[in-house]
Write a structure and sequence with these properties.
With 354 residues, the chain is α/β, with parallel strands linked by helices. It has helices spanning 13-16, 18-29, 43-50, 56-64, 89-97, 149-164, 181-197, 206-215, 227-241, 285-297, 306-319, 337-347; strands at 2-9, 34-37, 67-72, 102-107, 115-120, 171-175, 202-205, 222-226, 247-252, 264-268. The structure holds 3-isopropylmalic acid (IPM) and manganese (II) ion.
Length: 354
């Protein structure tokens, strides 16, 4: 049985999960081994409803769940940034509490092949919030980046596994070795992993990588890099894909110790889009890709083969010219999110599991 905690979060986070949650409910009704918990309060809306961006009730649910499916964390209509200044800390805290130390995101680039960005979280620019030195505006502020060889090795080895699934493409390891000691370590380990796995990572400086991702006709299959570089470059790949909504994101604990709290968190990579909240126009592709990654990750669910059905359904809907507003052109008028989900769900057949 896989326990999934639902943390819709802020802005469009709730509506964006409607389609994926509907599929999960259909699967549960058909006897699939899924137990849903939530929706649980989280982020700015969690603060508004219960006084905390990561309330105890939500934490408790995460301690007993296997994975989280989240919508978005950020700004929420009706709550000012002054009232709730840093809601993203809820996501960062969850990552650190459950040691979700590697981020894997897949950008679906219609008409091209996917791009997978594997980046480290632990010790890097996103490290433990407790290690930051804040400034009152007069004294210094300090953010430490401290990379351990074994952690860098783990990220690159995982990136190599993804590369093996995409033969004959390009794989890049991104750093800024001309400046940072952490990047020089990164590059040393990348070269070792290239030899050990026979996956040839090309070492590319982060500024050059940004240029190439925007300019080169072909995109690399895999980008392995430090947390902050990967955050920025994944948005650049989304720009190539056509919309920030085309990216499914996972933060995982590669130990995969099921039964001891959440092992991974899945979400679309886009933000909470407060101005679009309630419009039901947003593109739910990232949430669907997040769900597909979740279904692949969980040992009880992977054998059901549903992730491929979701991806195939996205292709079919796209090939049929169905577009949400962000991707619509003169040839394809925009459909709303509910219509998009209806067409997509019609393509994902749900078998009976009992
Ligand atoms: C993202 C976001 C997060 C990240 C923030 C909110 C911590 O920018 O999912 O891309 O950088 O991981
Ligand atoms: Mn980001």
């Amino acid at each position: 049985m896989t326990k999934i905690a639902l943390l819709p979060g802020d802005g469009i986070g709730s509506e964006i999960l409607d389609g994926p949650v509907e599929l999960l409910r259909r699967l549960t009704a058909a006897g699939a081994p899924i137990e849903l918990t939530g929706p649980l309060p989280y982020g700015t809306s969690g603060w508004r409803d219960s006084g905390s961006i990561l309330p105890e009730q939500t934490l408790q649910a995460c301690r007993t769940a296997d994975v989280v499916l989240s919508g978005a964390v950020g700004t929420h209509p009706g709550v000012s940034a002054a009232e709730c200044p840093n809601p993203e800390m809820a996501l960062i805290k969850l990552r650190s509490l459950f040691d979700l130390r590697i981020s894997v995101r897949t950008v679906w680039v219609p008409g091209f092949e996917d791009v997978t960005i594997v980046r480290n979280i632990t010790g890097g620019a996103y490290a433990d919030p407790g290690q930051r030195q804040e400034s009152d505006g007069t004294g210094p502020a300090v953010d430490e980046v401290r990379l351990l060889p074994e952690r860098v090795h783990e990220v690159l080895t995982m990136a190599a596994d993804y590369a093996k699934q995409a033969p004959h493409r390009r794989y890049i390891s991104v750093d800024k070795a001309s400046v940072f000691a952490t990047s020089r370590l990164w590059r040393t380990i990348a070269n070792q992993v290239s030899v050990a796995t026979e996956v040839q990572f090309e070492n590319v400086n982060v500024d050059r990588a940004a240029y190439e991702l925007i300019r080169y006709p072909d995109l690399p299959a895999v980008i392995a890099t430090e947390g902050i570089f990967g955050d920025i470059l994944s948005d650049a790949v989304c720009a190539r894909a056509g919309s920030p909504a085309l990216c499914g994101s996972a933060t995982i604990n590669p130990d995969r110790s099921f039964g001891a709290g959440i092992t991974a968190l899945f979400e679309p990579a886009h933000g909470s889009s407060p101005h679009r909240t309630g419009s039901r126009r947003s593109n739910p592709t990232g949430a669907w890709l997040g769900l597909a990654a979740l279904l692949d990750w969980c040992p009880d669910l992977a054998p059901l083969g549903l992730s491929n059905r979701i991806r195939a359904a996205l292709e079919i809907v796209y090939t049929n010219g169905i577009r949400t507003y962000d991707l619509a052109t003169e040839q394809s008028s925009a459909v709303g999110m509910d219509e998009f989900n209806r067409l997509l769900l019609a393509e994902v057949e749900v078998p009976q599991y009992v």
